[in-house]
TrEMBL record:
Keywords: Acyltransferase, Lipid A biosynthesis, Lipid biosynthesis, Lipid metabolism, Repeat, Transferase. It catalyses: a UDP-3-O-[(3R)-3-hydroxyacyl]-alpha-D-glucosamine + a (3R)-hydroxyacyl-[ACP] = a UDP-2-N,3-O-bis[(3R)-3-hydroxyacyl]-alpha-D-glucosamine + holo-[ACP] + H(+). Homotrimer. It is an enzyme of class 2 (transferase). CDD domains: LbH_LpxD. This is UDP-3-O-acylglucosamine N-acyltransferase. Pfam families: Hexapep (PF00132), Hexapep_2 (PF14602), LpxD (PF04613). Belongs to the transferase hexapeptide repeat family. LpxD subfamily. The lineage of its organism: Bacteria, Pseudomonadati, Bacteroidota, Flavobacteriia, Flavobacteriales.
């Protein structure tokens, strides 16, 4: 796809300094710009590169005034970073704008789907599936019986959506995601074996939820595992049965949340955090990476460590911890001097 500087300026409501007819067909970093590429400058640390970049078009803030000669055509906007982000969204939409049903694929006769959808080759849609308008389902995706998917949702290749799952509108489900697999429920028996507890609930994702590649969200034993509106999940996260995650909470990679735990709204949870089951995490909580949470957490707490402490206590304790060898030596010296 090719666009002229004039067309881009119209989208961004920007002003052109240079050739309005110059064409671009790709995006680049400013220091790696090449002919026919589009880039941007928002961080002053990169200003030096605008004088050497070979990018055909560069988006800059309106306040930018070049101090030396430049060869790139400028598009001046209020916020270069925000404008470039807007272009990335346009580019991504255009790249993903596939329509139609590819073959071979299997769609149950009882499945219903809206307008302007895309279903990639080798996909499977089970009984009574309901899919909204503008949904994109890429190749090799499994959609089980009775699944509901809202409009404008994208499901990338290789995702597995088990039966009875409900996915809202404008969600993104990345490759390798598994939603609705059985929760980890086994009852110990007298002979030392374990008997599987049937998991008969489902998973509900509300609107505007993003799920990263390789993440798993287990179905509830009874009722629903619920991911509320606006939640963003990174890659390789484990959400266990009957967990509930509040609106606009973000969770980084390799975090695991055990069964029946409730996480509040607007929380920020770092990578490799382990959260025990059957506890409550309040609203606006921040948990630093590699922390272990085994207790209820109140609103607005900031925690670090395993077991996690309030972050100020953790930092104070860490000062002592790293000085432990010195402290032990001093104690030993005192004990030695005491008996001499």
């Amino acid at each position: 796809m090719k666009f002229t500087a004039q067309q881009i300026a119209e989208i961004l409501e920007g002003d052109i300094v240079g050739d309005p007819d110059v064409e671009v067909s790709k995006l680049s970093k400013i220091e790696e710009g090449t002919n026919s590429s589009l880039t941007f400058l928002s961080n002053p640390k990169y200003t030096q590169y605008i004088y050497s970049t070979k990018a055909s078009v560069t988006i800059v803030n309106k306040s930018f005034v070049p101090e030396n000669d430049i060869t790139t055509t400028l598009i001046k906007v209020e916020d270069a970073y925000a404008s470039f982000t807007k272009l990335l969204e346009y580019y991504n939409m255009a790249k993903l704008n596939k329509v139609g049903i590819e073959q071979p694929s299997f769609i149950s006769e009882s499945a219903k789907y809206g307008d302007n959808i895309y279903i990639g080759a080798f996909s499977y849609l089970g009984e009574n599936v309901s899919i909204g308008d503008n949904v994109k389902i890429f190749a090799n995706t499994y959609i089980g019986d009775n699944v509901v998917i809202g409009e404008n949702t994208i499901i990338f290749s290789g995702a597995k959506i088990y039966s009875d799952t409900v996915i809202g509108s404008t969600c993104v489900i990345n490759s390798g995601v598994i939603i609705g697999a059985d929760g980890f429920g086994f009852a110990p028996q007298q002979d030392g074996s374990y008997k599987k507890i049937p998991q008969i609930g489902n998973v509900i994702l509300e609107n505007h939820v993003d799920v990263g590649a390789g993440t798993t969200i287990d179905r509830a034993t009874m009722g629903s595992t619920i991911i509320r509106k606006g939640v963003k999940l990174d890659n390789q996260i484990q959400i266990a049965h009957n967990v509930e995650i509040g609106e606009n909470t973000v969770i980084a990679a390799q975090t695991g949340i055990a069964g029946s735990t409730k996480v509040g709204e607007n929380c920020m949870i770092g990578g490799q955090v382990g959260i025990a089951g059957h506890i409550n995490i309040g609203n606006n909580v921040k948990i630093q990476a590699q922390s272990g949470i085994a207790r209820n957490v109140k609103d607005d707490e900031v925690l670090q460590g395993s077991p996690a402490l309030p972050i100020t206590d953790y930092n104070k304790s860490y000062v002592h911890f790293k000085n432990l060898p010195k402290i032990v030596k001093n104690i030993n010296d005192l004990e030695k001097n005491k008996w001499e």
